[in-house]
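note to self: dont lose this again. the chain is below, predicted strucutre after it. 730 aa total, dont forget to put it in the shared folder this time
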Amino acid sequence: MARHVSRRAPRAHWLLLLLGMAVLLAELCLNGWVNGVGGEQGPAPVAAESVLPAGTGPVLQVDAGGAVRSAAIPAGAVALTFDDGPDPKWTPLILDALRRHHARATFFVVGARVNQYPELVRRIVAEGHELGVHTFTHADLAALPAWRQRLELDLTRNAIAAATGRTVRLMRPPYSSTPAALPNLETVRAASGFLTVLTDRDTEDWRRPGVDAIVAAALPTPAGPGAVVMLHDGGGDRSQTVAAVERIVSGAGGPRFVTVSEGIGLPPDEPAGAGMVARGHALRWAQAGAGWVSAAMWWLIVAGTALALLRLVVQVIAARRHARRAAAADRRPLRSFGLVSVVVPAYNEAANIAATVRSLVGNDYPQLEVIVVDDGSTDATAEVVARLGLPGVRLIRQANAGKPAALNTGVAAARGQLLVLVDGDTVFEPDAVGRLVQPFADPSVGAVSGNTKVANRGGLLGRWQHLEYVVGFNLDRRMFDLGECMPTIPGAIGAFRRAALLDVDGVPGDTLAEDTDLTMAVLRAGWRAVYAERAVAWTEAPATLRQLWRQRYRWCYGTMQAAWKHRRALREHGQLGRRGLVYLAVFQMLLPLTAPLVDVYAVYSLFFLPVAQVAAVWCGFTALQVLAAGYALRLDRERLGPLWTVPLQQVVYRQLLYLVVVQSTVAALLGGRQRWQVMARTGLAAAAVPPGRGPSGAAAGPGPAGVTPDHGPAGVAPGRGPASDRPGRL
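---
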């Protein structure tokens, strides 16, 4: 309706948002993948017979023709091997024991742990020990597709290269054992380019059978052959293993302890290529970044949940207190404050304007004038009003200048000290005006918000908007009323004292949310703004997602404009800056901007967190929302039927609203002036509100006999025009 310079809305940020969410999800999944790393907890299922002939050595390689070659540790030597590390607690203790007794060993490391503890990997190499690959996430290679097998091995090799600058040739599959227990050659074939190292003697130390049992299982007989011995330095409590290693390597006259490569006569590992090292560093940085992102996301979820719960608690407590106060006020007889002027700015409102004007004229307030300002409509709005021929209704026509200009025109023509500003698609209940002006008995009150209800609440979209009005808007208004920081008197039903409008030079026209801008200005001028919940009006809500998007984009962008315009209130003594602006910034701007991150974390949780835990959290939070919504509906005397749609709100409606905030934020940062998004009116509000009753079935309020004539707070007798109504003034 207002005329603004328009700029094409930016589009590239949607691609950036999707890419950012995809990268975030990838980082979270990487963190979930590597944090799923465990240790040996039990052998993988094996076949009854091995595919290898008896006497096959523990070091295997499959050549191009499929033939298997093997090697074994010579007599008199033992290759101690340690799986599942490095571990920051147990690996150093094992290294200390080996160093004290000048023994060397081979460590089959997990790639994800290498990236977490690269300094331990460098110590292993510096003290003369050998490294081998034990996959990146301790995955059972036999259960993985070929691409995942290669990925597990290559990523671990790259991680070792980044940590040590050297490449490795040895690999041990998790859950492996002796050659006699090898069910197939799939894992050996997958490790092309590596030597697969199984074991001669599996101590099963992961079972923690006791130090004596581990020592007995590790040491071969004095005259027996050499052996590859499997132990573990990570993946759980390895205190028994540490004690057993001390005894194994300290025995006088025992075997010679060698690395696997030394035992079978292989040369030392070669330096890694620059590409492998670079890939390893990139992987380590990505893994570290994923950990930081996951931690940050966790604290974001905790903080957001805490703030949401705090907001809910404060809203409910404030609503209860406000309801008690409102109930006490309802018991007092309604008063008349003289002539009340109702200003209706209208632009292309032919579908609803007749019902709006009739509902205003039919109000039970005894002294009422209705001023309809047709702001250059291109439809029959003015003609519809003129044909009504209702007493007390004046029609003013003007060229299109925007809603704020139309409001100021109507206010200037009005004769009352109290002015009700009404949208052209709003239908008032019969007692709405009388109840709306009651708070003006307090001379400090400069503005009053009424209770806007959704008339066309059929279908999911209508029910969602109905719940949003009742739960979100009205609970907030009750809280704002108690906190004396009401940031918005809605354009659908709001009343202002003329003196308050004079103090702020009328309705501002430099933001898209003129109602929020005006309310903030009134508060900063020292007036109070309150909420009259029993003053009910019905409005036509957007009937399609596209219309809803346009409306909420205008609201959100306009609210940001108004908050920025009145930012100096933060340094003033009023409650607008201390409470209202802070609340808007946290709960209507910042938290919605984090909502896409929360949704990404929810998707991640479905794959990497226990399903029961995720379901319990979601159900618990949804149950709280349902209870709060039920309480809000009861306060507004509404049926509880729409509550079943609350869970569905989290899937569609919530996403649309936070995307509106994203779009508004981008537009605000780019500094573009946005045009009004005009909603096509269908007359649904008029059709949905029967005469004298609302869609909820609530009966109309008391008739004119219930309004007691009185002199207004400004001392103006009923029926007289304001003494300050002079040319050039409002």
